[in-house]
Every structure is written in C-alpha cells, then in structure tokens.
Design brief:
5-stranded mixed β-sheet, 332 residues, 15 helices, alpha/beta
C-alpha cells in the first residue's frame, strides 16, 4: 500500500492511511494496483482444474498478472479464509456461494466454472421409480447440494424428505453403507458412486447428468470487481485458455492438474467426464442468460429456494443480488 507524508496535512493523511490499511486488511487488494497479487483459492475438486492448469502453464504470467495460488483440502477452511478477508477470488459450489452472500451481501458470483454432469447421484436398491423411495432409508450428508439433489428426485413423485428416513452420512460413508446394505438409498458422488452401486446390488437411480442442479462458481467482493476490472479480465482470459485445453483432452493439462490434486493425469481425465467445464464463451452465452433453461440463474433460483426452505439462510434471497456478470460481458 502507498505511504503518505505542514502538521495538519500530515495528521489528516496519516488518518486516511490508517483507515485504508484497516479496509484492506478486511478485503485484500481490493484497491490495489495491478502489481499486487490477486489471491485466488481453490479446493480439491477436479472441476477447478482450469485454475491449476492456468498456474502450471504460466497463463497468468503471460497476462502479466501476479496471482497468489491458495489450495485448501476442505471447502470449510477455504470459506473461513475468504470471509476473513484473506482471499480475493474463491472457487466454490453455488450453494456455498449463496451461504456466503447471506453473510456478506457485497460478495457476488462472477463466473460459472462447471456443472456436475453425472459425477453426483443417488444410489437405490429395488427403486424403479421415485415413488418407490417412500419409506426408504437414505444415507445423505446434511449439506445443501446433497439436499437439493435428493429433493429434485423425490419431487418427481410429489415426495419430500419427510417421506423417507434420513441418515446423516458423508458421501463416502453413505456409499459404504449402501454397499453394505445398511441403507436402501444413498446420495454420493464419484469415485464412490459406481463402486457402491455394484457392491450394494443396486444402481444409480438419479444423477446430475445433463442438469444444472450442482454448479461451481467463482466469487469476489464488489470492491474488487469495481477496482480491478482489468486484472479480472486478464485472470479469466488465462482460465479460458486452460479450460479449452482440458475440454480438448490435452494430456499435459490433465497431468498438471493431477499433480496439484495428488492423482494421475488419467484420473483427472476420467473424473472430468462427470463435469461440464465452462469456458468464457459459455459464460457469455449461457451462464447468465435468463432465457436459457440451462443457465446458472436457474441453478441459483433452485439453490436459494432450498437454502431458505432448509433454514440454511435466514431469509429469501433476491437472485439478481447474487451475481455480477459485468466482467464476462466486458470481455471480447
């Protein structure tokens, strides 16, 4: 941060400087020049490979952008760091983003990263239609996106969670319980889903394939969006290059992401088959297009409604207040 140094002038400028330091301690680099780092945080979801490849291929450096890469093993730690003002950009699920916006309305979703495209699903044994789920025992973690997935399936038969018996189990534990036939149904995701279906004598009765039920997004605060527009444009140009490589099945890109995630490039390729990555064009034409049924807006409407109904947020949220598409719209 620049330092400023007559008695009245010194005192007034010292006070202004102090206030600026305090503000920046809460929102890092919100008014920083382009030479300052842009702090970007991800966790270990394979859908965030676009960021990892952009780092590994030096695409951010090519854009003359100083990006500080933070990697978290859990989204809880990542969210805590963002709310503490230690992160500029965070890659998270739209459900996590909505809960953050409920705490800090200055936060906006500015980019659509991906949709789960079959990587998340519901296991069932002797479940032929959603109506068959009535009265069954379901292993499901008490988190928003799993609640949404189960609700989307049950509502096909006019059912709700009140019509089933819920066991609060993390995704891996829910899959294991299904495999051991301790629950009739389970909400989980790959790499547990397919294996547990075979072990438990069942099948995947519902998944995110071809849907926008579960989305991952990038969030930032208003002040950053307004003050560092050029940096954010450069950031997403770099990410766009990386995503195009991943969507083209570039082996080096898979390898770079795998090194970050602690898995092989082949595993990255396999896991990405269950996710639909969005490039810049997709963000400009689909993501924030209210007329497109596959837009992020539809996901936010569903997710915000569920968050309120499940008492995860204290009051209904206005969908238009959740996102800011000005960055992607400003890019050619």
């Amino acid at each position: 941060m620049p330092k400023f140094s007559a008695i009245v002038r010194s005192l007034s400028l010292a006070l202004a400087s102090l206030l600026l330091v305090v503000a920046c301690s809460q929102q890092p680099n919100a008014t920083a020049p382009q030479s300052q780092p842009l702090v970007s945080a991800t966790n270990n979801w394979v859908g965030y490979s676009g960021h990892h490849v952009a780092v590994g291929k030096s695409f951010f450096k090519d854009e003359k952008l100083n990006v500080q890469d933070l990697f978290f093993q859990s989204n809880t730690e990542q969210i805590t760091s963002f709310l503490a003002g230690k992160v500029d950009l965070a890659w998270l699920t739209s459900g996590d983003a909505i809960q953050i916006v409920a705490k800090d309305p200055t936060v906006k979703i500015i980019y659509l990263v991906d949709y789960s495209n079959g990587a998340d699903g519901i296991l069932g044994r002797d479940i032929k239609t959603p109506q068959d789920a009535k009265g069954k025992t379901v292993g499901r973690e008490d988190i928003l996106f799993e609640k949404i997935l189960l609700a989307a399936y049950l509502q096909k038969a006019g059912l709700t969670e009140k019509d089933v018996v819920i066991k609060n189990l993390a995704a891996a534990d829910a899959a294991a319980a299904f495999g051991a036939k301790r629950v009739d149904m389970a909400v989980s995701y790959e790499p547990y889903l397919t294996k547990a279906a075979k072990q438990g004598g069942g099948e995947v009765v519902f998944s995110t394939k071809g849907t926008n039920l579960i989305a991952d997004v990038v969030i930032a605060r208003d002040r950053l969006i307004q003050s560092r527009k050029t940096d954010l444009q450069a950031y997403f140009r770099a990410v766009d290059k990386a995503v195009k490589l991943l969507n083209a099945n570039d082996p080096e890109a898979f390898k770079i992401s795998g090194a970050k995630l602690g898995i092989s490039g082949d595993e990255v390729k396999e896991q990405l088959q269950g996710a639909k990555l969005f490039d810049l064009e997709g963000n400009q034409t689909v993501a924030f297009n209210k007329a497109d049924p596959n837009s992020l807006i539809g996901n936010l409407e569903l997710t915000a409604k569920a968050a309120y109904e499940f008492k995860i947020v204290p009051q209904p949220l206005k969908i238009d207040s959740l996102y800011d598409d000005s960055i992607v719209k400003s890019m050619s």
